[in-house]
Amino acid sequence: MAGIPIDQVWARIRDFCDLSWATDKDTKTGPEDPSRSAADNASRVGARRVITIPPAGFIKETLTAHSDEKHSYSYNITEFSPEVFPGKFQNYNATISLSPAPGGAAGTVASWTASFDGEAETADFVTMGLEEDVFGAGLARLETALRGSTAAITAPSSTPAIAAPAASGSA
Protein backbone atom coordinates (compact mmCIF):
# COMPACT_ATOMS: atom_id res chain seq x y z
CA MET A 1 0.00 0.00 0.00
CA ALA A 2 2.38 2.58 -1.34
CA GLY A 3 2.34 5.86 0.54
CA ILE A 4 -0.08 4.73 3.27
CA PRO A 5 1.55 4.77 6.74
CA ILE A 6 1.44 1.55 8.77
CA ASP A 7 -0.33 3.25 11.70
CA GLN A 8 -3.12 4.45 9.40
CA VAL A 9 -3.63 0.94 8.00
CA TRP A 10 -3.49 -0.65 11.47
CA ALA A 11 -6.02 1.84 12.86
CA ARG A 12 -8.47 0.65 10.20
CA ILE A 13 -8.00 -3.13 10.60
CA ARG A 14 -7.00 -3.63 14.27
CA ASP A 15 -10.61 -4.18 15.41
CA PHE A 16 -11.07 -7.93 14.89
CA CYS A 17 -14.82 -7.58 15.12
CA ASP A 18 -15.09 -4.95 12.37
CA LEU A 19 -14.64 -6.52 8.93
CA SER A 20 -16.26 -3.64 7.04
CA TRP A 21 -12.85 -2.81 5.54
CA ALA A 22 -12.76 -6.22 3.83
CA THR A 23 -16.34 -7.21 3.02
CA ASP A 24 -19.92 -6.05 2.88
CA LYS A 25 -21.07 -9.34 4.48
CA ASP A 26 -22.99 -8.95 7.73
CA THR A 27 -20.66 -9.48 10.71
CA LYS A 28 -21.87 -9.80 14.29
CA THR A 29 -19.73 -9.88 17.40
CA GLY A 30 -19.98 -11.30 20.89
CA PRO A 31 -19.97 -12.03 23.66
CA GLU A 32 -18.33 -8.97 25.09
CA ASP A 33 -16.95 -8.24 28.53
CA PRO A 34 -19.02 -5.30 29.86
CA SER A 35 -16.11 -4.16 32.05
CA ARG A 36 -13.99 -3.39 28.94
CA SER A 37 -14.28 -0.68 26.31
CA ALA A 38 -15.48 -1.61 22.82
CA ALA A 39 -11.89 -1.20 21.54
CA ASP A 40 -10.56 -3.54 24.24
CA ASN A 41 -13.20 -6.15 23.44
CA ALA A 42 -12.34 -6.01 19.74
CA SER A 43 -8.67 -6.78 20.39
CA ARG A 44 -9.11 -9.20 23.29
CA VAL A 45 -7.96 -12.76 22.66
CA GLY A 46 -11.13 -14.82 22.70
CA ALA A 47 -13.23 -12.16 20.96
CA ARG A 48 -15.68 -13.73 18.53
CA ARG A 49 -17.33 -12.72 15.30
CA VAL A 50 -19.97 -14.37 13.13
CA ILE A 51 -19.97 -13.73 9.40
CA THR A 52 -23.28 -14.29 7.63
CA ILE A 53 -23.01 -15.97 4.22
CA PRO A 54 -26.30 -15.55 2.30
CA PRO A 55 -28.74 -17.09 2.07
CA ALA A 56 -28.40 -19.01 5.36
CA GLY A 57 -24.74 -19.82 5.93
CA PHE A 58 -22.40 -18.61 8.63
CA ILE A 59 -18.77 -18.74 9.77
CA LYS A 60 -17.82 -18.27 13.44
CA GLU A 61 -14.30 -17.04 14.13
CA THR A 62 -12.31 -16.48 17.35
CA LEU A 63 -9.37 -14.14 17.89
CA THR A 64 -6.34 -16.18 19.04
CA ALA A 65 -3.58 -13.50 19.10
CA HIS A 66 -3.45 -9.70 18.82
CA SER A 67 -0.44 -7.37 18.90
CA ASP A 68 -0.56 -3.62 18.45
CA GLU A 69 3.24 -3.60 18.62
CA LYS A 70 3.61 -6.11 15.75
CA HIS A 71 0.55 -4.79 13.86
CA SER A 72 -0.94 -8.27 13.56
CA TYR A 73 -3.66 -10.60 14.72
CA SER A 74 -4.53 -14.26 14.24
CA TYR A 75 -7.83 -16.06 14.37
CA ASN A 76 -9.40 -19.45 13.70
CA ILE A 77 -12.71 -20.76 12.48
CA THR A 78 -14.54 -22.47 15.31
CA GLU A 79 -17.78 -23.38 13.54
CA PHE A 80 -19.43 -23.04 10.14
CA SER A 81 -22.60 -24.12 8.42
CA PRO A 82 -22.17 -27.18 6.16
CA GLU A 83 -23.09 -25.33 2.95
CA VAL A 84 -20.14 -22.92 3.33
CA PHE A 85 -17.35 -25.49 2.78
CA PRO A 86 -17.76 -28.73 0.83
CA GLY A 87 -16.24 -31.90 2.30
CA LYS A 88 -13.82 -32.13 5.19
CA PHE A 89 -12.56 -28.77 6.47
CA GLN A 90 -10.87 -28.16 9.82
CA ASN A 91 -8.01 -26.50 11.70
CA TYR A 92 -8.36 -23.18 9.86
CA ASN A 93 -5.98 -20.55 11.19
CA ALA A 94 -5.30 -17.15 9.64
CA THR A 95 -3.08 -14.17 10.35
CA ILE A 96 -3.24 -10.58 9.17
CA SER A 97 -0.01 -8.64 9.62
CA LEU A 98 1.44 -5.33 8.52
CA SER A 99 5.05 -4.30 7.99
CA PRO A 100 6.71 -1.15 6.72
CA ALA A 101 7.41 -1.02 2.99
CA PRO A 102 10.89 -2.37 2.20
CA GLY A 103 13.91 -0.21 1.50
CA GLY A 104 12.67 2.78 3.43
CA ALA A 105 9.90 3.47 0.91
CA ALA A 106 6.77 5.14 2.24
CA GLY A 107 3.94 2.71 2.73
CA THR A 108 2.82 -0.57 4.21
CA VAL A 109 2.95 -4.21 3.16
CA ALA A 110 -0.13 -6.16 4.27
CA SER A 111 -0.08 -9.94 4.53
CA TRP A 112 -3.15 -12.12 5.06
CA THR A 113 -2.27 -15.81 5.29
CA ALA A 114 -4.14 -18.98 6.22
CA SER A 115 -3.71 -22.70 6.65
CA PHE A 116 -6.22 -25.49 7.13
CA ASP A 117 -6.73 -29.23 6.75
CA GLY A 118 -9.16 -30.60 4.20
CA GLU A 119 -9.78 -33.05 1.39
CA ALA A 120 -8.27 -32.16 -1.99
CA GLU A 121 -11.62 -30.97 -3.38
CA THR A 122 -12.21 -28.81 -0.32
CA ALA A 123 -8.65 -27.46 -0.39
CA ASP A 124 -9.00 -26.37 -4.01
CA PHE A 125 -12.41 -24.76 -3.40
CA VAL A 126 -11.35 -22.94 -0.24
CA THR A 127 -7.95 -21.85 -1.56
CA MET A 128 -9.47 -20.31 -4.69
CA GLY A 129 -12.24 -18.63 -2.69
CA LEU A 130 -9.87 -17.21 -0.10
CA GLU A 131 -7.32 -15.93 -2.61
CA GLU A 132 -9.86 -14.26 -4.88
CA ASP A 133 -12.98 -13.47 -2.86
CA VAL A 134 -11.65 -12.89 0.64
CA PHE A 135 -7.97 -12.01 0.86
CA GLY A 136 -7.41 -10.39 -2.54
CA ALA A 137 -10.73 -8.56 -2.60
CA GLY A 138 -10.45 -7.62 1.08
CA LEU A 139 -7.00 -6.09 0.75
CA ALA A 140 -8.00 -4.24 -2.42
CA ARG A 141 -11.12 -2.91 -0.67
CA LEU A 142 -8.96 -1.79 2.28
CA GLU A 143 -6.55 0.08 0.05
CA THR A 144 -9.40 1.73 -1.83
CA ALA A 145 -11.01 2.87 1.43
CA LEU A 146 -7.74 4.23 2.81
CA ARG A 147 -7.14 6.20 -0.35
CA GLY A 148 -10.64 7.68 -0.05
CA SER A 149 -11.73 6.45 -3.44
CA THR A 150 -14.61 4.34 -4.64
CA ALA A 151 -12.63 3.19 -7.67
CA ALA A 152 -11.49 -0.42 -7.60
CA ILE A 153 -7.79 -1.06 -7.27
CA THR A 154 -6.92 -3.80 -9.70
CA ALA A 155 -3.39 -4.56 -8.49
CA PRO A 156 -3.20 -4.41 -4.70
CA SER A 157 0.30 -3.73 -3.37
CA SER A 158 -0.09 -6.56 -0.88
CA THR A 159 -0.45 -10.22 -1.65
CA PRO A 160 -2.63 -12.80 0.09
CA ALA A 161 -1.18 -16.23 0.71
CA ILE A 162 -2.61 -19.66 1.34
CA ALA A 163 -0.31 -22.42 2.49
CA ALA A 164 0.25 -24.96 -0.30
CA PRO A 165 -1.78 -28.17 0.01
CA ALA A 166 0.02 -30.99 1.78
CA ALA A 167 -0.67 -34.68 1.53
CA SER A 168 -3.42 -34.30 4.14
CA GLY A 169 -5.09 -31.65 2.00
CA SER A 170 -3.83 -28.69 3.99
CA ALA A 171 -3.95 -25.39 2.22
* Structural class designation: alpha+beta
Q: Give the total of domains.
A: 1
CATH fold type:
Alpha-D-Glucose-1,6-Bisphosphate, Chain A, domain 4
Order of helices and strands: HEHEEEEEHE
Alpha plus pi helix count: 3
Q: Approximately how much helix is present in the residues?
A: 10-25%
In spatial order, strands of the major sheet run: 1-2-3-4-5-6-7
Tell me the span between the first and last alpha carbons.
Answer: 26 Å
Low-confidence stretches: 149-171
CATH class: Alpha Beta
Gross CATH architecture:
2-Layer Sandwich
Average pLDDT over all residues: 78
| Strand tally | 7
Outline type: globular
- What's the alpha carbon Rg, rounded to whole Å? 16 Å
Largest sheet: 7 strands, mixed
CATH superfamily: START domain
Structure overview:
The structure is a single chain. The protein is an alpha+beta fold. It is 23% helix and 33% strand. Strands 1-2-3-4-5-6-7 form a seven-stranded mixed sheet. Strand 3 (57-67) and strand 4 form a beta hairpin.
Task: Note the main attributes of this structure.
alpha+beta, 7-stranded mixed sheet, 171 residues, globular, single chain, 7 strands, 3 helices, disordered C terminus, Alpha-D-Glucose-1,6-Bisphosphate, Chain A, domain 4
